[in-house]
Structure prediction request, 333 residues.
Amino acid sequence: MPGEILSQSEIDALLSAISTGEMNADELKKEETERRVKVYDFKRALRFSKDQIRSLTRIHENFARLLTTYFSAQLRTYVQITVATADQIPYEEFIRSIPKMTILNVFEVPPLEGRLLLEVNPNIAYAMMDRMLGGRGASVNKIENLTEIETQIMSNMFEKAFDHLREAWSTMIEIEPILTDFEVNPQFLQMVSPNETVVVISLNTQIGETSGMINICIPHVVLEPIIPKLSAHYWMQSAPKKDRNLQEVIEIENNLKDASLPIIAELGVSNISIQEFLLLDKGDIIQLDKEINLPIILKIGSTPKFYVQAGKMNRKQAVQVLEQIKGGSDEDE
Prediction:
């Protein structure tokens, strides 16, 4: 076992104690030869290193920020979610630590095996539901008497919230969270054996004036295939910053490609007085400033982009692109 490294001040204090007789050098040697024993609890097996726990903490700090944005938009009130603790404990110890009646959402995360548990304190869950139903966010704990409507609202809300875990975990693996069970009594839920090691990420949650905890329970069997990716060495050896920036640009471009834009085929323009406009009636004709044999201008948003010709396709009105407008500005008209 490697010896403990002393600072310079501790070395000076040790030499001073030996020189003044406060400490005997022979006793010090005897103490060094004694076998050091460290108590190990086999019921509380530590299967993750501190480095791996730190990696999981960083991932779920990002998840907490995503949840803050999501719930703030959904509930239209002040929401603050932060990671409070991240620890590895036996599953049985986790079940004993949560309320006897609480909100339990069980998720599968393919392609990983096993299931994750999202436990939401009833005070938080009811405050969220009250806001969803148009209330002020009051918390009334009546979890034993949940109606079918309340159960459906809560399960839908947390199912959509847990979708953000996909983005938080995307640096390690692409997952597809699926809500498989909704329960209120922890005793009826047996995901893994009582002594199985689980990682519990506790999120401190503030909604308006109501506060409480949201716990994410991740069994060892779920994380086992990606444990090597949780080490600092993996993060250091991951894609260079230039490649990561390129990937982010590609993702932004792909998202922009799905954005919708209005397309306007402008037949022509006409100027009339307000008096003429007020007197318009069915059957009246408005003369446009463009001749019928000239091409029509197609605008993307408010910018002219193409010269087109009007027609029909599959019995629907359509336009055929004739030529691109160079520069794409109003001056090219």
Observations:
- Residues 50-75 form the longest helix (26 residues).
- Residues 328-333 have pLDDT under 50 and may be disordered.
- The longest strand covers residues 79-90.
- Strands lie at 79-90, 103-108, 115-120, 178-183, 197-207, 210-219, 263-266, 296-300, 303-313, 316-324.
